[in-house]
TrEMBL record:
PROSITE patterns: NTR. Signal peptide: none annotated. One of its GO terms (cellular component) is extracellular matrix. One of its GO terms (biological process) is response to cytokine. One of its GO terms (molecular function) is protease binding. SUPFAM superfamilies: TIMP-like. Pfam families: TIMP. Keywords: Disulfide bond, Metalloenzyme inhibitor, Metalloprotease inhibitor, Protease inhibitor, Secreted. This is Metalloproteinase inhibitor 2. Disulfide bonds join C1-C114, C116-C164, C121-C126, C134-C156. InterPro entries: Netrin_domain, TIMP, TIMP-like_OB-fold, TIMP_C.
Length: 183
């Protein structure tokens, strides 16, 4: 069973490994990163020890710095047994590049948004289809920016009536907000 994992980690080493054969019998290569997991925000009960990816960006692989100096926020697919797989489509960000709001939201608010859906708005106008959605407009409003104002400074949080809304800032949400006050 494949599930999503979100972790903070350092890559300490990398090596190329065989991963079976393709339909023509040619060996499939993957990069195996040995990692040191710092924190798991979402995922299996077991720590992630290895991250696998394709051997180059040309085939959707993600390159990580090894040596254990750079910390990453990584979202990918948990394969079980302490293994995770990432592609170019998965979120991989250096921890230092995250805004204070993003770090605080991950550390303290992540669970408050687990039942919310974030819908990407590709062009204006766009609308949410249900009350448990937050509309992510960075892409449309800031020229295809996936790391814009909403992504850096807002968190999508569930309120007491089951609806979800963007909440801005470093301070904890006010009780009135959670009890349905416009954010």
């Amino acid at each position: 069973c494949v599930s999503v994992a979100v972790i903070r980690a350092k890559a300490v080493s990398a090596k190329e490994v065989d991963s079976g054969n393709d339909i023509y019998g040619n060996p499939i290569k993957r990069i195996q990163y040995e990692i040191k997991q710092i924190k798991m925000f979402k995922g299996p009960d077991q720590d992630i020890e290895f991250i696998y990816t394709a051997p180059s960006t040309a085939v959707c692989g993600r390159l990580l710095d090894t040596g254990g100096k750079k910390e990453y926020l990584i979202a990918g697919k948990s394969e079980g047994n302490g293994k995770m797989h990432i592609t170019l489509c998965d979120l991989v960000s250096t921890w230092d590049s995250l805004s204070p709001t993003q770090k605080k939201s991950l550390n303290q608010r992540y669970q408050m948004g687990c039942e919310c859906k974030i819908s990407r708005c590709l062009s204006i106008p766009c609308f949410v289809s249900s009350s448990d959605e937050c509309l992510w407009t960075d892409w449309a409003m800031e020229k295809n920016n996936v790391d814009g104002r909403q992504a850096k400074h807002y968190a999508c949080i569930k309120r007491s009536d089951g609806s979800c809304a963007w909440y801005r800032g470093m301070a904890p949400p006010k009780q009135e907000f959670l009890d349905i006050e416009d954010p």
